Amino acid sequence: MNISFNWLSEFLKIDLKIEEVSEILTDIGLEVEGIENYEQYKGGLVGLVVGEIVYCEQHPNADRLKLTKVNIGDENILQIVCGAPNVQLNQKVIVATVGTTLHPINNDKFKITKSKIRGEISQGMICAEDEIGIGNSHDGIVVLDSKIKIGTKVSEIYKNYSDKIFNIGLTPNRSDAMSHLGVARDLRAALMHKGFKLELITPSVSSFHVNSRTQKININIENIQSCRRFSGVCIDNIIVKESPIWLKNRLKSIGLSPLNNVVDVTNYVLHEIGQPLHAYDFDKITTKSINVKTLKQGTEFITLDGEVRKLLKTDLMICDSETPMCIAGVFGGKDHGITSETKSIFLEFRKLGSLGDVTAFTAGFILLSKAVKFPNFASSQAPLTAPHAVCPSTTTTFVPANLQANSILPKMSSFTKFPATLALKISPIPWSKIISEDTRESMQLKIVAKGY
């Protein structure tokens, strides 16, 4: 499990070296197996400087190349061969000097060397944004503001977000620590034991409020043992677009790929407070009636990756009346997913039952990291805090679940003690066929999978 030091520091204001924090986490059972560096721009834009093109003429031996001379300050004039269609005299540009290592967006890193191109010496490179990792465009070189001083380090123009990432080898019994809040809680306890006085700074909920109750969705839980609570909000006036840089950095730093602002915020909340969320396109829920149930063996379901899956009779499904929308805690459906055309969403927060009720449903490899997030350790009220963490500045409608009066936390069973990430291979195997045995001496979980 990856934990961001910067993210952790938002919960706890600690003045400790990264190595000291690592040692404490390991001492309290959250073993740090490694520490990695994360940079928004790989390489930190080292070796890149601002230059001004003081000479630009056609290359004598090539129709599509220009021969330029670039002033990078301190009376350094570099001759550089450039093939960009937009290169012109007097432009302020980004120059990679000889010896600089570049980290392109879609290619392997490479080192700039002095070379000859079609008979002319080239002493560096005038860069496009994808060649230095600051964007995806390769239409031409980056042209900077003419007011920027020659010789300025590019790292002073494009601020490079950096972070330290703990690789924690989480043991199966510690699903309460599968989030930054969970880790911060444990770290605070350890530090207070050492004499530190620390406040646990939790996410603010002041921005969240319900300003409409007009959107109606009926919720029916047919199998209360498999889904203890199901609730959500309807959010209108959504504009699906690229996430802001800070959010993309947070997700990328722990190994996730940003998709769009709606999907990204559900992943953000999951890894911040440990509450799984799922967003549906509200307008695609045609019956405005959600049933949490199982379906007939062999029912076909198209998941978000476009694959057609055949369900088992034990797969717990979130349905638009009888039409499946999502495999609970595992995989969303393509037909009700978020697209660029989405204007309203239904944001679901649920609490599943024990892992004994969850099924690995597909042939091949299926990743069940979501299905084991806080299966029985989280409070039954946890789903109610999730919309506060999202805090949309849009119209929201709260939709409570249909709960039975005696709905309480289930008794903890051995099925709750699975690793954060578990892959089952080839044969569809119900969780009921998986037997767990606690080994007290080694404090490890032995899993015997029958049916392979």
Question: Any descriptors?
Answer:
alpha+beta; 452 residues; 5-stranded mixed sheet; 6-stranded antiparallel sheet; 6 helices; single chain; globular; disordered C terminus; Phenylalanyl-tRNA Synthetase, Chain B, domain 1; OB fold (Dihydrolipoamide Acetyltransferase, E2P); Phenylalanyl-tRNA Synthetase, Chain B, domain 3
Give the SSE map.
Layout: E1 2-4, H1 5-8, H2 18-27, E2 32-39, E3 48-58, E4 66-71, E5 77-82, E6 92-97, E7 101-102, E8 110-111, E9 115-117, E10 120-122, E11 124-126, E12 143-144, E13 162-168, H3 180-193, E14 218-221, E15 227-235, H4 245-253, H5 261-273, E16 277-281, E17 289-294, E18 300-302, E19 308-310, E20 316-320, E21 323-327, E22 331-332, E23 345-352, E24 359-360, E25 366-367, H6 382-390, E26 396-399, E27 423-424, E28 429-430, E29 434-439, E30 444-449
Parallel strand pairs: 14-17
Antiparallel strand pairs: 1-13, 2-13, 3-4, 3-6, 4-5, 6-11, 6-12, 7-8, 9-10, 15-23, 15-26, 16-23, 17-20, 18-19, 20-21, 21-22, 24-28, 25-27, 29-30
Helix pairs in contact: 4-5
What would your notes on this structure say?
By secondary structure, the chain is an alpha+beta fold. It has three domains: 7-33 and 164-193, Phenylalanyl-tRNA Synthetase, Chain B, domain 1; 43-156, OB fold (Dihydrolipoamide Acetyltransferase, E2P) (Beta Barrel); 218-449, Phenylalanyl-trna Synthetase, Chain B, domain 3 (Phenylalanyl-tRNA Synthetase, Chain B, domain 3). Helix content is 13%, strand content 30%. The protein is built from six helices and 30 strands. Helix 4 (245-253) crosses helix 5. The longest helix is centred in the middle third of the chain and has 14 residues, at 180-193. The two termini are 28 Å apart. The model is unreliable at 355-385 and 391-452 (pLDDT under 50).
